[in-house]
Amino acid sequence: MTLRDILAERPAARPKIPAAIESLRTVFGERIVTGEDVRRAHAHTTTYIPNQAPDAVIFAECEAEVQRIVGICAANETPIIPFGVGSSLEGHVNAPQGGISIDLSRMDRVLAVHAEDLDCVVEPGVTREALNAHLRDTGLFFPIDPGANASLGGMAATRASGTNAVRYGTMRDNVIALNAVMADGRLIRTARRAKKTSAGYDLTRLLVGSEGTLGVITSLTLKLYGIPEQILSGVCPFPSVRDAVNTVIQTVQTGIPVARIELLDAQSMQAANAYAKLDLKPQPSLFVEFHGSPASVAEQAEMFGILAAENGAGALEASNRAEERSRLWKARHDMYWASMQLRPGSRAIATDVCVPVSRLADCIGETQEDLQASGLIGPIIGHVGDGNFHVTLLLDMDAANEIEAAEAFLTRLAERAVAMDGTCTGEHGVGQGKRGYLHGELGAAVEVMQAVKTALDPHGIMNPGKIFLT
Amino acid sequence: MTLRDILAERPAARPKIPAAIESLRTVFGERIVTGEDVRRAHAHTTTYIPNQAPDAVIFAECEAEVQRIVGICAANETPIIPFGVGSSLEGHVNAPQGGISIDLSRMDRVLAVHAEDLDCVVEPGVTREALNAHLRDTGLFFPIDPGANASLGGMAATRASGTNAVRYGTMRDNVIALNAVMADGRLIRTARRAKKTSAGYDLTRLLVGSEGTLGVITSLTLKLYGIPEQILSGVCPFPSVRDAVNTVIQTVQTGIPVARIELLDAQSMQAANAYAKLDLKPQPSLFVEFHGSPASVAEQAEMFGILAAENGAGALEASNRAEERSRLWKARHDMYWASMQLRPGSRAIATDVCVPVSRLADCIGETQEDLQASGLIGPIIGHVGDGNFHVTLLLDMDAANEIEAAEAFLTRLAERAVAMDGTCTGEHGVGQGKRGYLHGELGAAVEVMQAVKTALDPHGIMNPGKIFLT
């Protein structure tokens, strides 16, 4: 979808929105807000996708309130847009048909920690950092780390993952059960707390990644893990992206249980050096991390070092000291900001695709050539253990031809990934931005998704204008 | 559901079944079979649930044929029951409304092995043993092992798991994508081959565990793993079930990446000794297996040994020799047959429940007391790392009061598991037998499942009479 496409959409008329707002005000008083600043802050703000503000924002404080809000909106065929912290990247929190943004950030309680079962129950507004702070004294942690301090409800809704999915999986793998309020106001619990179940359809996984289009998540039961006895992190420079990717393939295939394995291309390394005041080699590099017992971590690092050397790598510079590790991963996590410094004054659009790892070097190579031919600046970083990578395009929003070139590039990138049997999005979700690619990737399966959507939300009030082209 | 309930059901009339058979015969000739022996062999045969034969069995040889068959059945509102090898335990392959059993065992080709990507593509009739035989020279394997040499399509349909799910997950975690023919004859592919995706609803996970009620699986893309450099298996006797379970909790929490950890109660150990001519201590025991490098395996076994000893265990008798390991796991896998020898001439019904592991010792303890109070024989074995266990009831089918006692026991067992925040089935599925427990476990979520079912199969032709009470 180009900017123009999104702005030109003519969505369904929603005449009863004012009536919904009036009813909500009767119940919630000052907790429903219609001021422009608050409304705009609850629409999309993180990329160059336009800001489409809702008609009102309501701050929910508990599950029963969410149920009440959805009930009122349903009675008035008024769109509902769930909002966590607004860190999503594909326009998920925009309100192209107007409606009510439900801000869930006040639902931020950790409801239970079951240490023996390695699980916890949280409200959707708990952020991943807040959860890990809460867990600090238990010896447990929640690993999924998309970079931003996202809300766990939002992470489930977009099927988020990030740097350590290669070891711990994505939100798909780490949500045991959900509570959700469906479009008709019905509250459901998708599963009980057993680690596995064969009892009926997997509604947990149906809601994870549904981007708020089927229901509003009101609590999450999540898997936890013991904090590893030892953690070793390091950086390793390679002659080329292909050499780095070959090392990744061999690492995974050898069964080294690497916890993180991240690629930064040469341009990203330059940006990281400048932004984080580091002195790393400006070559394609892998940032790696190993978790386990001291003996296991040492063995993993040694085996990785051998594979890397066989692929022409420089020495692995590694440390198990917490401050060194933090410095390294902060540099990685700050890549969005570091990249923007490559072109001061630009706006960034961070996109993601994911391919089978055997095609990753080809996909990145062709993408780099495409960037060069298009005259675009776009450093590349990737969760390469999963075949997932990001291009962060840095754009001058006043140059119409540059926006046009960028949009053509994004379409080619999505099509390239799909042609390699991959996906137009590995972890950001479809939102508004990638709706145009979904049919090319999944064909008739999209119609099955739409049949499910229509069955569960016949009036199209749950986050309309996302995932599917209207 | 009692036997009587299942037999007393009055399902929808299906007057056009003869027309469907006639149409199918025109296209498939002798590959549609209506002889009683073949029909009965394609209905339920593995427990005491009644055999409800289909009207005909058709042997499909490729995806296009499945599409043709479903199209003809859809046009005649004729039930379709997918059939792999018939090893399911809850009546999934029965035909309570008559109709056509699609035997997929001739669709047994491994279509691709992508060693670099650690995945493969198979037809649904490939069994797990056949796949692993095919992979023998690649250094890779497919780990999920429900005991029986089940078909991979059937394993996906019931969301199967088994002994090493504690390390490798269940079918939920190991299916990357599916091809499926839906109720209207439409062929879909649920995802591409990338390791992760955020592109739309997770139709892969919606079909995994749907027990043939939404579509017929026609191919599966599965995750593979490198065969571990070393495998060490062993047995360890404990003073009590609770001591064994506490050791399991501590093992998982310490982060020991145990590959299998199976509980056998004292009665099961006696049965195993008698059947497999072993000389193991007749105490509650854990069968364990460790995978990894030699150093890692040694470390895992040592750490496990320390935890076990702290819980009063006898010595861990372990071996990394292939024949010793095979003998041990064969004894475990043969428990169904070994248990039946505890009462020659009996019929067995193997049930499963799954609870949070913190409640496992309570759940097993109360279940053992219940068995004793009910005068029933039911050895217990379990995939205890997941909180999942089986009771194999050994019944005299001529004793009506015993059947009645067994059915009351099964209901109490399911309710006990649910009351402990667990599930009435961890891996066998709902089928016919557990439909009565689903609403008690999941409440309004069952109505959401039914809305999905109705949207995707409005005439109820896909494996009717399973999962949901009609």
UniProtKB/TrEMBL annotation, chains A, B:
It holds the Pfam family FAD_binding_4. Keywords: FAD, Flavoprotein, Oxidoreductase, Transit peptide. Its cofactor is FAD. Its EC number is 1.1.2.4. One of its GO terms (molecular function) is FAD binding. InterPro entries: FAD-bd_oxidored_4_C, FAD-bd_PCMH, FAD-bd_PCMH-like_sf, FAD-bd_PCMH_sub2, FAD-linked_Oxase-like_C, Oxid_FAD_bind_N, Vanillyl_alc_oxidase_C-sub2. Residues 50-227 form the FAD-binding PCMH-type domain. One of its GO terms (biological process) is lactate catabolic process. Belongs to the FAD-binding oxidoreductase/transferase type 4 family. This is D-lactate dehydrogenase (cytochrome).
